[in-house]
Amino acid sequence: MRILTRFTIPDLCRVVEGSTVANVQSYVSRLYREGYVGKFGMVRRGFTGEFQGYRLIKNIGPTMPVFLKGRHQKTLLKTTSTRK
């Protein structure tokens, strides 16, 4: 996402090995709700090959947002670093 800055769900599926459309869609929709990505462009439903476009709003560097469910089903957002 940091390299593309503007992307669609199929774009991410092509880049991420072993991903499914449903999984990527769920992750991106959660990023949208948390304000990390924004939507752009108009999508006409029912037309083949048209997908909602997204753009990166918060570039947090090499860290990746991880969504966790809390003890009482309260959803938490945790930013983890990929570096050790």
CATH class: Mainly Alpha
- CATH structural architecture: Orthogonal Bundle
The SS-based structural class is: alpha+beta
Percent strand equals 25-35%
Give helix and strand order, one letter per element, not per position: EHHEEEE
Radius of gyration: 14 Å
Number of domains: 1
Main sheet overview: 3 strands, antiparallel
Spans of at least 5 consecutive residues with low confidence: 72-76
Question: How far do the termini sit from each other?
Answer: 21 Å
Question: Please, how many helices?
Answer: 2
As for the CATH topology, it is Arc Repressor Mutant, subunit A
Please identify the oligomeric state.
single chain
Q: Shape, please?
A: globular
- The largest sheet has its strands arranged as 1-3-2
Number-wise, the strands total: 5
Describe the structure.
The protein contains two helices and five strands. With 84 residues, it is of the alpha+beta class. It has one domain: Arc Repressor Mutant, subunit A (Orthogonal Bundle), CATH 1.10.10. The strands form two sheets. It has a three-stranded antiparallel β-sheet with strand order 1-3-2. Helix 1 (9-15) crosses helix 2. The chain is globular and about 35 Å long.
